[in-house]
Design a protein that fits this description.
The complex is a heterodimer of chains A (343) and B (106). The mean pLDDT of chain A is 95. Chain A starts with a strand and ends with a helix. Chain A is built from seven helices and 19 strands. In chain A, strand 1, helix 1 and strand 2 form a beta-alpha-beta unit. Chain A is an alpha/beta fold. Chain B is of the alpha+beta class and 106 residues long. Chain B has a single domain, classed as Roll (Ubiquitin-like (UB roll)), CATH 3.10.20.30. In chain B, 17% of the residues lie in helices and 21% in strands. Chain B contains three helices and five strands. Chain B has a five-stranded mixed beta sheet with strand order 2-1-5-3-4. The radius of gyration of chain B is 12 Å and the shape is globular. The termini of chain B are far apart. Classes of the chains: A alpha/beta (343), B alpha+beta (106). At the A-B interface, loops of A face helix 3 of B.
């Protein structure tokens, strides 16, 4: 938690390829940027969903993987020294008169900026909520999608569901503090690291962890306090499992999140923009990449790059209202080459 | 050309035509089948194109490979008939295929 306010020209929400390239285009016109992303690294969907998948439609690159593209963009924007705030989501937006905005993240970071660039793609990655009837009533009291404080689970009957690294890691970490720990997964194979799986089975052997095959189908409890769940076992027969706390780990999905509350016009969870400036219904707030919509929109990375370039021209006028922007090429402009550190 | 029947979560059957070579997920998205989200666009990375293959078509569509089986861990209410539709390639042999879309993908 920091009380200090960070002041900058622009805040870019989203560190996917388009957000990263926005830093480049803004940098060329001397607009300094900070970048916020919910994930713990750059790349957005490219690195989260398909780091190894080849992309064939980036101009000039016959083939590039999601990870490589992200790495190359990070390298390309290095001269502009943008600061990254990873693992954080912008929660609130406050208007500072006509001059800009104050943004606060869920980690308590406060940023003040003159322009805001929303490059949030399909939204922020959030844990999947299993479609169990009535699960909302237990969230925050008995059902958790992440572990913030281990102490919270001390002396409780903990049930973890899933077979990935999160499920296995928390099984190992919470076992010593929980009263009892049960892991439920639909099969005996795991996509987690073999080391964690071995450690988990060792705990099972010792009687410290209970591992059961099955899938949770129903929750039981009152007033947000979970008491048990119904599990459909591998043989198809259902059984009841005692649980005070349920931690379901089913991976991440993209949700628009707090952006929906910032007073912007939305069309089916997308942000309409004009195609000259890529500005939203709110002055000084731009939207680029997969999150925006306009007639003819294509959700392509290359379209997002184009949008970033035009956005930067419009952003410049807000940051430097008294200056006139002269259009220049990186091939010939010594001033641009200086900014890029190649001259 | 293969005709595929998607039974939407509310029971509505939707028959669509699919070109061999495309995936069952692509056929669904192209025809706005309700309940197929396909968030990752076919990278076998999100488990939001989960379907149940009709009993009669289980052999013809084959079984999930290791990566798909791993990704099915992120789907809800996984059954014997579960597949990720982005991993089923349409062929002429699948003409008449029937798949059910789960109540919710998450």
């Amino acid at each position: 938690m920091t009380e200090e306010v960070i002041r900058t020209d622009a805040v870019v929400v989203g560190a996917g390829p388009v957000g990263l390239f926005a830093v480049f285009e803004l940098g060329l016109v001397d607009v300094k940027a900070h970048v916020v992303d919910i994930l713990d690294r750059a790349g957005g969907q490219c690195t989260e969903l398909y780091p190894e998948k080849p992309i064939y439609d980036i101009p000039g690159l016959t083939v590039v993987t999601g990870q490589e593209l992200s790495d190359r963009l990070m390298d390309q924007i290095k001269p502009f020294g943008a600061e990254f705030h990873f693992g954080q989501r912008v929660e609130s937006l406050e208007r500072l008169g006509d001059e800009g905005f104050r943004l606060t993240t869920d980690a308590g970071t406060t940023l003040e900026c003159k322009i805001l660039v929303i490059a949030a793609g399909g939204g922020s990655f959030t844990p999947k909520r299993p479609p169990l009837p009535g699960i909302e009533a237990y969230e925050g009291t008995s059902v958790f999608y992440s572990v913030r404080k281990m102490e919270h689970f001390r002396g409780r009957d903990v049930l973890i569901v899933g077979g990935g690294d999160s499920a296995l890691d928390w099984t190992l970490n919470l076992q010593p503090v929980a009263k009892s720990l049960t892991l439920i997964h639909r099969r005996a194979e795991f996509r987690a690291s073999p080391d964690s799986v071995n450690k988990m089975f060792a705990l099972v052997e010792n009687g410290d962890v209970s591992f059961k095959l099955g899938q949770v189908t129903k929750l039981h409890g009152t007033d947000g306090k979970l008491s048990s769940v119904t599990v459909k076992g591998a043989d198809g027969a259902s059984f009841e499992q005692k649980a005070e706390v349920l931690l379901p780990f089913f991976g991440l999905t993209m949700k628009l999140g707090p952006v929906a509350d910032w007073g912007l016009n939305l069309e089916e969870n997308l942000i309409p923009v004009d195609t000259a400036r890529f500005e939203t219904s709110e002055p000084r707030i731009f939207a680029i990449g997969d999150i925006n919509t306009y007639p003819g929109k294509l959700k392509l990375i290359l379209s997002g790059f184009h949008e970033a370039a035009l956005m930067a021209q419009a952003a410049y006028k807000y940051v430097y209202p008294d200056k006139k922007l002269i259009f220049q090429y990186t091939t010939s402009s010594s001033s641009l080459q200086k900014k890029l550190g190649v001259l | 050309m293969a005709r595929i029947t998607f039974i939407e979560p509310d029971g509505t059957p939707r028959i669509v035509e699919a070109e061999p070579g495309m995936t069952v997920m692509e056929a669904a998205v192209k025809n706005n089948i309700r309940g197929i989200a396909a968030e990752c666009g076919g990278a076998c990375a999100c488990a939001t194109c989960h379907v149940y293959v009709d009993e009669a078509w289980r052999e013809a569509t084959g079984h999930p490979e290791a990566m798909e089986e791993d990704m099915l861990d992120f789907a809800f209410d996984v059954r014997e008939a579960s597949r990720l539709s982005c991993q089923i390639k349409v062929t002429d042999a699948l003409d008449g295929l029937i798949v059910r879309v789960p109540e919710k993908q998450f």
